[in-house]
Write a structure and sequence with these properties.
homodimer, mainly alpha, Globin-like, globular
């Protein structure tokens, strides 16, 4: 993997997704009230995935373990700091997704399902104060967007590395020869 | 570009994002009431992008034209059918994004901004009926997720094609020789 500046990436994705300090604080404020309901979002997620043929190879016999990981991550969204360590973790997840050959559109699809299944729960819990509910929803949209952006950045760079490896294997070319040709080509 | 089955891709992404027939109908139902407010979402989008350094090369001198395209697309989300033609258009957009070298995370970032900036407007217009508002939000989340999934599918496949082209140019290898080696390698 190429060297990346995780602090820079974190700041950039926060600015892009709108994950401000105020919104990070809102997520922590609602953690206690929301957390007991997050298993419903995870359950809905795997119920929906079960109906997608392309998801089957990634679920077979692994659903229970994946559910636990999913719910833990979802809870973390409302308890962890959105710092370099979290960004590094997300970056690693994007990379793992390439290694297990998870199709790229699964990440956006997953965020869509989470966002959609969270919506009625948020109304149920915070619907009596629309102004606060708007702020909560904006914070969640930003946090999910931030997470998706970082995963996709790493998915993309990991894909490029994997593709180059494939070319080199297929052609039997050494990396040194390729790098030299690339240098000569860019002159 | 490799041959893709657009009907299959449309059905798959609809199932994944949860874009049901009922939700497609809801989007059209609210079109008339929502449309006059969509320029606020577009304006907010470009105001936010203006603050992102990495976005500057894509905006320079093009903001006005881009705003028109953005608003028209946004309006279309509530008036067009989510059929093969729309999917083909999105697929083309993903491909164009690779050609203009738009970073991959811009697409997820854009959807995040739209979703976030739509939220207060939806409460303003439909907040008096929370049950309907939930259904409207779920429909919008699904439609944006569907659009993002298709764009990313094509961004990914277009990236792979572009990488192969680059590799062939750098190495001076013909496509026929590469294809033959690839066949031999996979035996």
């Amino acid at each position: 993997m190429t060297e990346i500046n995780i602090t820079e990436l974190t700041l950039y994705c926060k600015a892009f997704s709108g994950l401000t300090v105020e919104r990070e604080a809102i997520l922590k404020e609602i953690a206690e009230e929301l957390t007991p309901h997050l298993s419903r979002v995870t359950d809905a997620f795997y119920t929906e995935l079960d109906k997608i043929d392309k998801a089957k190879p990634f679920l077979n016999g692994k659903s229970e373990g994946l559910k636990k990981t999913h719910e833990a991550w979802l809870k973390g969204l409302f308890t962890n700091d959105f710092d370099d360590e979290y960004a590094k973790f997300l970056y690693h997840v994007g990379d793992v997704h390439v290694k297990i050959e998870l199709p790229v559109e699964f990440m956006a699809g997953a965020m869509t399902q989470i966002q959609r299944n969270l919506t009625p729960i948020l109304f149920e819990l915070f619907g009596n104060d629309p102004e606060r509910l708007i702020a909560i929803m904006e914070a969640i949209i930003a946090a999910l967007g931030f997470s998706l952006q970082i995963m996709q950045e790493s998915y993309q760079s990991s894909t490029l590395v994997t593709e180059l490896d494939k070319f080199l294997k297929i052609t039997g070319m050494s990396r040194i020869l390729f790098n030299n040709l690339a240098k000569a080509y860019s002159l």
